[in-house]
Amino acid sequence: MTEELTIQVENLTEQIITWRRDFHRNPETAFEEHRTSSVLRKFMEDLDIPVRVMAKTGLRGVLKGRPGGKTVALRADMDALPLKEEGDKEYISENPQAAHACAHDGHMAILMGVIQILCSRRDSLKGNAVFLFQPSEEQIPGGAKQMIDEGALEDVDAVFGLH
Question: What is the pLDDT of residues 32-55, one digit of tens each?
Fold first, then answer.
C-alpha cells in the first residue's frame, strides 16, 4: 500500500466507525432495509455515482473509470438478524426486533470507505467499479439471486464480497 493510500485509510478510520455504529443502532431485517438503503444511496449519489435500486432495497452503484480496464464489483450485505440485542454499548440496536450480529454493519461501513477512496482516485482508475449492497443475505430466499436476475452482474468481470 502506498503511503498516500495509507494516509487516506487512516483519515477515514473514525468515519468508518461512525457509519458502522449508525448502521448497528438502526438494524433492519430482510427486504426491510429501507433506512439503510436510503443512507447508502444518498452517500453514493453525493459522490456522483449513479445508483439503481434492485431486489426491493438492494443497490447497484457504478463508478466509471478510464476506458480499457475491467469492471470489478464489490459487495456487502445489508440485513440484520431478527433477534434482540443484549448488552450495554452506547451504539446498541434501537430496534428490539433486529440486531447486526453478523457484522453486516461493518461490511457496509468498510465498503463506504472503499467507495470514498476510489472516488477520490476516479481520474486514475482504469476500468469500472460496481458497488453492490445486497438485502436479505440471512433469509431464504435471499437477495443475491434476485439482484442477479435484475442485472446486478451485467458487464462485471469479477466480484469481491465481504462476509
Answer: 999 999 999 999 999 999 999 999
Catalogue the active-site residues: 79, 137
- Please state, in angstroms and rounded to a whole number, the distance separating the CA atoms of residues 23 and 12: 17
**One-letter amino acid of 28:** E
Phi, psi dihedrals of residue 41, rounded to the nearest 5°? -65, -45
Q: Tell me the residue ranges of DSSP E strands in 48-113.
A: 51-54, 58-64, 66-77
Cα gap 71→128, rounded to integer Å: 5
Which residue in 132, 153, 159, 157 sits closest to 68, CA to CA?
157
Q: Say which amino acid occupies 121.
A: R
**CA distance from start to end of the chain:** 23
Strand partners, 81: 99
Give the tens place of pLDDT for each residue, 90-107. Answer: 999 999 999 999 999 999
